[in-house]
Histidinol-phosphate aminotransferase
Amino acid sequence: MQISQLARQNIQALTPYQSARRLGGQGDIWLNANEYPISPNFELNNRTFNRYPEPQPQAVIERYATYAGVSPYNVLVSRGGDESIELIIRAFCELNDSILYCPPTYGMYAVSAETCGIASKTVPLTADFQLDLEQIAQNLEGVKVVFVCSPNNPTGTLIKRLDLIQLLQMTQNKAIVVVDEAYIEFCPEATMVNELKNYPHLAIIRTLSKAFALAGLRCGFTLANKELINVLQKVIAPYPLPVPVADIAAQALLPQGIFAMRQQVQMIVSECENLQKNLKNLPLVEQVFESHGNYLLVKFNDGQKVFQTLWEQGIILRNQHTALGLENCIRITIGTAEENKKLFEAIETMSP
Ligand SMILES: *Cc1c(COP(=O)(O)O)cnc(C)c1O
């Protein structure tokens, strides 16, 4: 008997999440994981390492609540936004329930569900990457959690607020609606936070990994009403946040940290517009999709060739070729001005 055959059946069948780091590559320009291109600098203040950390570090919770415009009891902090996805599935799905999500979208909803042995239902986004509410309504039977990513990764699309409201209305008393706002800092006016008061089954996922430039920290948040947060508190690990993580997260959420984040966002948004304009003019580019995140989804006439050619030059992008409806599409994270210039020149050089 092989050890791998002792694993649960669904784990034997599981294809793990293909994270950018897992996919590898050798390069000096990393535009494949939607990270911020430059590291912020922090010193550790708390050097008490012999004691367990606070389960929910107060300074982090309070400062994030202030930043997000909610009360501390509306906030749960976890090991990245990814942990929040799994907590919600674990806390709300019975073994014969399912989750529902709308591809092409973030891959972790499916992987987390599969890991927990929970089935996934999919209702593809429409041609303009919006919710197909009619199809969702027809597929809600047995669905306990609906995941919507807005701005959506990898398309960059903002899901229409009125559609999200309709989704919240049709799921009332039936299912949790998770709005994944990992990229919300790039379009803060689109947040659904102000709907928390109206919908007890709304959960919003946030992270320090993108606009805050702290992907290495592994720190994310769930925003929801008290009752929902209390359910998640029951299943989260006893000490999810290491002392150094809580220490740095608390600093990043001070006024000067938020100010720095907003400057980072400004730089990325302006670089993004620039790159979008430039790429549009290249003959081998078919379409540059409108993006509200720190990345661009670009359709090429031969996406595989562009991806491979740049990969060989050490410019690592995220291939979306196998994502639903995204043939020949590549997701490009916005880097520094210099990185974006090198990227553009590499693609321009390929043009006939
Ligand atoms: C990056 C990302 C997350 C969370 O990332 P963490 O690093 O685990 O906080 C969640 N959802 C989407 C869509 C993302 O792109």
